[in-house]
Amino acid sequence: MSARRIAAEQPESFAFNEKSEAKVKFWLAKYPEERKASAVIPLLWIAQKQDNWVSEPAMREIAARCGMPYIRVYEVATFYTMFNLEQTGKHLIQVCGTTPCWLRGADDLKAVCEKKIGKKGREHVSSDGMLAWEEVECLGACANAPMVQISNTEGDLYYEDLTAEALEQMLDDLRAGKEVKAGPISGRSCSEPTQATVKTLVDESLYDGSRAKKIKLPNTKGAEKAEAPKAEPAKPQEKAAETKAKPKAKAKSTAPKDVAADAGAGKKPALLKKPKGEADDLKKLSGLGPKLEASLNEIGVYHYGQIASWSAEESAWVDAALKLRGRIERDNWIDQAKDLAGKAEG
Q1: Which of 38, 157, 293, 302: disulfide with 282, CB 3.0–4.6 Å?
Q2: Are strands 148-152 and 131-136 parallel, antiparallel or unpaired?
Q3: How much is the pTM?
């Protein structure tokens, strides 16, 4: 892939608008604070859908939101060709030129684009600023070939079963500000067969999504109040059987969990029943998230100093006990812990 560069001319600043801010908040809420850099691609996409391209000031704003160096955002934006690094047409026509579409007339669609828009390439914008076009690889609608995807600030929609005449009319309508209906222009639903002698899927509920179970995403409004479905009460006979078979509850121990006392590898390190003062934030170690931190606390590891002092045998014991599969050595926890312990003391 050839190197991609940002545009020479850049705006002075960038700010997410109100609509984009709501989306930014949604995506940042999906990740822990120390992992919010994971939202970099969604935020770049939100910026592009707002302005139709990703400017250099937008990358800097996203770097600040994700708590990561600007150069890291720049690397992501320049690597993925889905991001426009310079201003393009209001509507970017992406013509699929892969084999099924080519066999079904993609060359005719490309000829229309050259005639109505001009030179191929998202950087070559029509004189009115409305259109640009490029050839792309397979977009996954082979059964409805030939097709194009039209990308703009409203979305990325497929237009299928195209002919040269139909595409030419679509481009005229886009220029005139008219609405162009997405989907197969042939009138069929999705990729239903048009010449079959036996009708299939005649009930729309089989494919329109209405039968799908409604779910609530965990980081959306009201999700925290959503109640788990209640189990049906057991029948009298079942309930009696459950009561009879139910063992007596054992007293809960407050001592560290003695996991893998016979882990079969290494030597058990010194463990604590509780932290000495305030527990260290073990999540600062690369490769160690909230779940692993909880597991370490459970067996009696709370401080950087404990990890920093592990010998090779003690490291092997913890690795076997928590089934880490070599993560301690792979992510260099001990050296990381030594560095963090030194900073904490300093």
Answers
A1: 293
A2: unpaired
A3: 0.60
